[in-house]
Amino acid sequence: MTSPIPSFPxxxxxxxxxxxxxxxxxxxxxxxxxxxxxxxxxxTGMHAVLSLVPAAASGAVDESWAVAADxxxxxxxxxxxTVRAVFASTxxxxxxxxxxxxxxxxxxxxxxxxxxxxxxxxxxxxGSAVFTSYETxxxxxxxxxxGRLRIEGAESxxxxxxxxxxxxxxxxxxxxxxxxxxxxxxxPFAASSAFEDCVAEVTEEFAAFAARVAPWAARDDVxxxxxxxxxxxxxxxxxxxxxxxxxxRREAVLMSKHWMDKVWSWDHCFNAIALAPGExxxxxxxxxxxxDHQDATGALPDSIAHSERLYNxxxxxxxxxxxxxxxxxxxxxxxxxxxxxxxxxxxxxxxxLDERRVPGRALAHYQHGNDSGWDxxxxxxxxxxxxxxxxxxxxxLQFDELARLAGETGHxxxxxxxxxxxxxxxxxxxxxGDGYAARGVADGGDVERTSLLPVLAVLAGDRLxxxxxxxxxxxxxxxxxxxxxxxxRPDSDxxxxxxxxxxxxxxxxxxxxxxxxxxxxxxxxxxxxSERFRRLCERHGFAENFDARTGQGLRDRAYTWTxxxxxxxxxxxxxxxxxxx
Length: 581
Fold this sequence. Notes:
The protein is built from 13 helices and 26 strands. With 581 residues, the chain is an alpha+beta fold.
């Protein structure tokens, strides 16, 4: 049986715990990785607070410390000495070092100004060292549970060294500290459990989560690579989950605890679907999180973070599709929740019909690539305001789900069915015989057709006219590489290996295409795409996106919707008895 505690490279996956806004990682800013592991907070954004550097207590500096991580601990090791870290709670990190070791915790900021940086002082109540951060608005208290603290730069201002070094009581014995994140004040720290008990608690907590969201990882009849990758995917989701704070009113799965530390208003759907069978409450919270910030027009925010909400763009209306998938996964809705979702989903749909349609036209439009989720796709090269076929299909599926909810909540489903009929007829305006084309709103002319985006109209499944699924399937094959469907056709002169939505493979596009082909009866191709993407993740992890030619992970390397889509595809393959597993 596979171990429930997967190991992972800390340079790719941050070490954290469900509910925490903290992590340990050498990734300290967007696309910036340094040598030393840092304590990073995601309150008010991503902020490296303290560097953590182990050393020999004797002051020797030539030792090489290897760093390893799993779901329960981070370990620094050199020779016979080890320093370990564990999250004792969501806001408290415990670190323990062997005899002969030390640990230096230094401010990550270069200078303290009246508005930036970190201030350090020693609390006279208990002798703890307290760092205060302008960037996060929080305090970071270091308390010695065993051993002693040496403080440099206490109460210094401006450019100065501010650091704490912990050693054993006689500079040679073992030591242990607690680092807490809090706002203004709290009582002096008192350990309620031993270090090893904290490790055991985290181990049990993650193992239980993994058993719920990836139960096949404990089955010997599932391939080892799928079991191992499933546990790592479960860890990416579990560790990126934060407790309610700031603008996030529910427990939320961030896209990452690297720099993509937000919830975007379509990313959350994939995480919800992955969590639904094993964590239904968390799944429902993921689905509803953006709806907590729906504006007066019905629009959802583009994204939500701890201290930020953005409304200058939206994201595509995949929520009807997602809700149907959630319910197919067995997510039970109470009567009150159904009424609430019907109201929210109705207003979100009316936004697209009332605010994003030219008067007298049936098709809704995007105002920018960002609205589609495919920020820089070639669909938007010639003109930004575009009527695209997959948007019509997203709305069709939303009408279907609204009609279903209407019947369950005492509303009339007829208006949604009428909208569906009108949208279905209008979708035919974008058919070109050899596929669908998006068109500019202003001039009605077709736009570039080398992007995978319009092919996602296959999600309409059996609503499509006879012969159309076969054409879309043939088109989809032209995007396939060894690892899955590129987002720009590889023979296009606009294709870029690291071009964001102009070539790389992404999890959401893969899942929507796979699901659409399956709905349209193209099951062999859907199976093939699922298998390619699963192999990609098993080989290269859960990056934000992947080089479509080489499979190498790109950008943020611990992205939750990638982990979520992997779990969904494996779960579906296990149910089908897919021999490729």
